[in-house]
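Quick illustration, no need to memorize.
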Amino acid sequence: MAKDVNPKLFPIFVVNNSDMEARIKEAKVLDGYKVQLIFTDGTEGQKDFSELAGKGVFADWKNYDSFKQVQITHKGRVLEWPDERDFCADSLYLAITGKTFAL
């Protein structure tokens, strides 16, 4: 993991559970590099991306208009920005809910 990225923002999970398949239904960009997410199961929450803005592959997020170009892709399985910068729905779901998997 890059030195300038906080591993607590996006913990790495090894998931071997076929029941987990979060899908993003809606994503709304908020102020302060936050995105309000609604998942197909009704779960809602905000994800704060501010620690990433301006760093590494997210350097162009210093321009907030670039950050606002987020889209839901891959049938709700991915939150994606131009140039294929993306986050899978499962990791966002786990980050928002605080849930973890026991393997």
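The chain has two helices and six strands.
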